[in-house]
Design a protein that fits this description.
- By secondary structure, this protein is α/β, with parallel strands linked by helices.
- The chain has two domains: about 30 residues; about 80 residues, Immunoglobulin-like.
- The protein contains one helix and eight strands.
- Bound molecules: copper (II) ion (CU).
- Copper (II) ion binds next to loops.
């Protein structure tokens, strides 16, 4: 009985190990680094300024109660538009082009986020 249980346990352990390695590879490789979160609480982007590397992701979280936001960026080299950001929603943007940008909110003109994308 013991002899039959032992391989089963090893098998389970092996499975967990494989899962852990796969998850690690995804986190560090295929999916890129974890997104950098931008809060929009109190009608402000927080932080107000961010330096990231090309290919990194900013995650815009609408954590501002019942308010609607609408993050967008329009420049010659790079642009995005989140559309209406419902309360509690999030929107990811991969900054694929090096440059200095200002992200705005289509609903609250005072909201500004400086994004510096480096090589
Ligand atoms: Cu806004």
């Amino acid at each position: 009985m013991i002899a039959r249980l032992l391989p089963l346990r090893l098998g389970k352990f092996g499975l967990h190990l494989t899962t852990a390695i796969t998850a690690g590879l995804l986190a560090g490789g295929a999916l890129g680094a974890a997104p950098f979160t931008i809060s929009q609480k109190d009608r402000e982007f927080r932080p107000r300024e961010v330096i990231i590397k090309r290919g990194e992701t900013l995650r815009f979280v609408n954590d501002d109660g019942e308010l609607l936001h609408h993050a967008y960026l329009s420049s010659e080299t790079f642009e995005f538009d989140s559309g209406d950001q419902k309360p509690g929603s999030q929107f990811d943007v991969v900054f694929s082009v090096v440059g200095d940008y200002t992200v705005l909110c289509g609903i609250h003109p005072k909201m500004k986020l400086g994004v510096h994308v480096t090589k």
